[in-house]
């Protein structure tokens, strides 16, 4: 590939993305670059009607109740979140794949099912769900930020996408990631940088940064990120709730990933939402769907309501929490330390116990892990270098 041909590929991909946006959903002028906090932009833009603001400000539980009763149709809800997602994208650059007609067509199918049968299609009936740009959807490109993957169209849905369809959900956008994943910010040569809606001079986190920024602007009620540490970082940075499930609980089959075969730091899919109930509803719905029938690596363990309620641990009363203030090598910045102390005080006020003592970590283990991540994520040596250059498609490595 010629040195500059990758730029042409990226420009073509971005043009296809832009062409997929309905022109009347684009706002001009946009906030100037010196406006750092854009949380109010969707409300102030004038694009969203009052009912669309009500829909997109509702939590997952409220949305599902309204959808099941027919008070709001899936087409209405999906359209509202899509319009807000496009507004979010215009100020924080959070989306990769935009497929409006396909998503609205799916929402219409869900509405027709409710009308004809009088019952919901599944526990996530009609709910729009955003997906990290690893979860393949048949007929759509999945680049994961790699120039060499532009034009790579999925021939089938990922296992989790199949399950979400069966649960009645409406996948409606895919979101931006850092090149190679496993990084604490979100930038690649194909789609560029995703920024934080609280302060656009700061990162949205990573590697599920597109999800974090989108949900932070209420452009999606519930999203799927992936995590070695990549749900928890953007959830924290964007004021959200996120869950990294245990390994082999949420199916990974049919999705794409970096460093396949590297099992020392296994990645998992998990939910992100602006309310904690969204996490529980997602996990229960997916596990009740018996994902081990779609992905043989999944653990055959049904949802356990008693475990969720901590029945064997005083039903969640009087718990003991360990707090890792630092690891004796890297000390958090003062705002992070302050947040930990706020958490400690809130737990104690709720009747729990917070351990104040620093929990040490072996320094040799710490540096071994750090070196392992450095070499596996961004190696430029030996065969790793050749693979990485091929994935970059002639583009320089994305600065991190």
- Quickly count the helices: 14
| Terminal Cα span | 24 Å
β-strand number: 12
Supply the helix-strand structural class. Answer: alpha/beta
Largest sheet: 6 strands, mixed
CA-based shape: globular
Please mark out the parts with pLDDT under 50 across 5 or more consecutive residues, or reply none.
378-382
- Going across the major beta sheet, what is the strand order? 1-3-2-8-10-9
Quick rundown:
This protein has 400 residues and is of the alpha/beta class.
Describe this structure in words.
This protein has 400 residues and is α/β, with parallel strands linked by helices. The protein contains 14 helices and twelve strands. The protein has a six-stranded mixed beta sheet, with helices on both faces. α5 packs antiparallel against α6. The longest helix has 19 residues.
